[in-house]
User: Which sequence fits this backbone?
């Protein structure tokens, strides 16, 4: 939202495992000079439990590196991530070009990179280090799914970047949507939505901002799968029913939070789903019907729906309270 059988979650991660099997209904183009294979029409790539489907898949491969060595990193685009609170720094933005894919050579039909040719690198000694998906992209495991128009997966850093319309990343606990791009750092268990990003939890709590950075805890048992053979106890939860759990969300720019009775806006915020507490700072407005309160900071209890201004000593809270509107709740 990342591998032994009872310990690791089923979040989207193509960087580990054996061979990557690539299939396509429309066939393949193999460019030995550029060392890439293009699969057309209902293309699919599968590695372990992770699957990528798209109108077109482009797999870039290289000679498999000896064990214990890493490739020279490729140049990266500069796309600064937001300044996150000090205890959880935001990872570097996903690179435009990848760098190693640990483990596994590309496996595909006989017309792909597995085919032996005059170049000795066009054999089973190759590995895919970058995978691009274009058109109707769907990436999924047993528990987590992502949708977009285009996706780039860097095998070396285990980073997924998705762009296009209707961007969405779902887990059994929450849904992340975004307008501009979505980044997923599987090894760090971090997801980033950029552009009118929204996180909606399974109990319908919601926070929205220009940029949302979600931090997940690994190895959390997810909701049990429906198949009869799956166990439901936490000590031996099967892979098909495990996923990451959203631990915290940092929000930056035009933060918007809705409770049962109020709408709270501000400049920055942090939300902890387990406690249901959100803290919003910077030009905070609390709106309840026609009533409005302005201040520098607020704490919102999403369980009770109560938002409370928390000013520094000496600061002032201002607002507009419309009399006789039926709102008798207290406010600090």
Assistant:
């Amino acid at each position: 939202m990342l591998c032994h059988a009872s310990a690791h979650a089923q979040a989207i991660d193509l960087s580990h495992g054996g061979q990557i099997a690539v299939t396509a209904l429309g066939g393949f183009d193999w460019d030995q000079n550029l060392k890439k294979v293009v699969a057309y029409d209902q293309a699919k790539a599968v590695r372990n439990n992770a699957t990528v489907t798209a109108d077109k898949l482009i797999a870039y491969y290289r000679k498999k590196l000896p064990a214990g060595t890493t490739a020279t990193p490729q140049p990266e685009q500069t796309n600064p991530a937001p300044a996150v609170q000090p205890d959880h720094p935001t990872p570097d933005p996903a690179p435009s070009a990848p760098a190693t894919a640990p483990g596994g050579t590309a496996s595909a039909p006989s017309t792909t990179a597995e085919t032996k040719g005059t170049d000795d690198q066009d054999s089973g000694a190759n590995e895919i280090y970058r995978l691009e998906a274009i058109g109707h992209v769907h990436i999924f495991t047993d528990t987590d799914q992502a949708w977009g128009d285009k996706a780039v997966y860097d095998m070396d850093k285990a980073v997924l970047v998705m762009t296009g319309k209707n961007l969405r990343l779902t887990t059994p606990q929450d849904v992340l949507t975004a307008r501009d791009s979505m980044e997923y750092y599987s090894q760090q268990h971090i997801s980033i939505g950029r552009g009118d990003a929204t996180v909606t939890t399974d109990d319908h709590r919601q926070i929205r901002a220009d940029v949302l950075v979600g931090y997940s805890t690994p190895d959390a048992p997810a909701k049990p799968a429906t198949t009869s053979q799956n166990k439901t106890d936490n000590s031996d939860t099967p892979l098909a029913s495990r996923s990451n759990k959203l631990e915290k969300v940092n929000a930056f720019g035009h933060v918007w939070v809705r409770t049962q009775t109020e709408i709270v806006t501000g400049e920055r915020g942090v939300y902890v789903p387990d406690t249901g507490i959100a803290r919003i700072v910077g030009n905070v407005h609390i709106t309840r019907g026609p009533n409005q309160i302005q201040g520098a900071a607020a704490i919102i209890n999403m369980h009770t729906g109560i938002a409370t201004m928390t000013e520094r000593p000496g600061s002032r809270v201002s607002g507009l309270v419309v009399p006789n509107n039926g709102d008798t709740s207290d406010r600090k």
